[in-house]
Predict the structure.
Amino acid sequence: MREVRLSLFGFGNVGRAVARVLLEKELLFREKYGLKFKVVSIADTSAVVWLPEGMALREALMVKENFGRLSSWTNDYEVYNFTPEEAVREIDSDIVVDVTNDKNAQTWHLAALRDGKAVVTSNKPPLAFHYAELTKEAERRDVPYRFEATVMAGTPIITVLQDGLKGDTVERIEAVLNATTTFILSRMEVGLDFEDALREAQKLGIAERDPSGDVLGIDAGYKATILHCLAFYPVTFNDAHAKGIAEITPEEVRRARERGNTIRLVAEVREEEITVEPREVPKKDPLAVESHENAAVIKTDLLGELVIKGAGAGLKETASGVVGDIIKASMKLRES
Ligand SMILES: NC(=O)c1ccc[n+]([C@@H]2O[C@H](COP(=O)([O-])OP(=O)(O)OC[C@H]3O[C@@H](n4cnc5c(N)ncnc54)[C@H](OP(=O)(O)O)[C@@H]3O)[C@@H](O)[C@H]2O)c1
């Protein structure tokens, strides 16, 4: 049995979903992989709670859900106000798990890698702006740097591009990578205008209070940038052309429907070319997704078209990607 120490940063929706999976599947992971996970620290923006012997995850969930902040936790735990970078350096762990929305997390990802710690993340901006630096550092130190949940939640498009298709040359990827815009466009198909559809998405918790990242195509642009880095070579989001759905009118949606089509926010990734824009797609096209589904059509020289379709958001769906990466990183650490 190998014990793996995890340092968890972010205890929001995804962080708590990851904690729940670690609790619920503890026995399975021991039996199936010979891995025993010990969470030695958990951080939110209020505090870093650290116990080298391992934290009680049920209690952590209870504190966060009842009080909203980890700093309310007293008991036997040491509560610190480290910056993430200090915490990464100070706390002995094998894997740093970043499930925060810290846009500048690349600084502490690098600190972790330089310290010989593996990193698993669902946080997009560090990859969309610093892919080359981060992956080079991980390679140099020979430590895992994994980010499956950054694109299409747990649907394993990253693994397909990293580990599959080794002999293929990718020619292009077309994908619907943002579920919030799919929801809004679907509601516009039944007669709502953009503003009303957006308000409904916000009421249901599908869109954030500040929805600009989704509706302006930035979120899809981050994801498309990460796909370009994997399929071709490293670039940054600054090389992407992203246009959102804010200017789509009910009239355009209606006319598309009359033609048997649907409008979706489509990302197209070709060598040196990343475009995100609303496009009309035939109703039967793999990209005509509904609900929280994402889809990608990868075209290669040998295989032709490969379609990957599955959940692109959701808590247990994102935890699927994060926990899968934690397991893969742990197995790699065991080998070395
Ligand atoms: N939700 C999804 O379906 C989904 C899917 C794929 C990827 N993701 C990505 O996964 C990440 C987490 O998403 P989420 O839905 O869980 O967001 P969330 O509910 O807003 O949670 C974010 C968490 O990060 C914490 N945090 C932010 N900056 C921090 C810092 N510097 N140090 C320590 N903690 C920090 C926040 O602390 P407080 O609690 O104190 O605010 C909060 O606990 C995001 O990057 C998101 O884009 C989400």
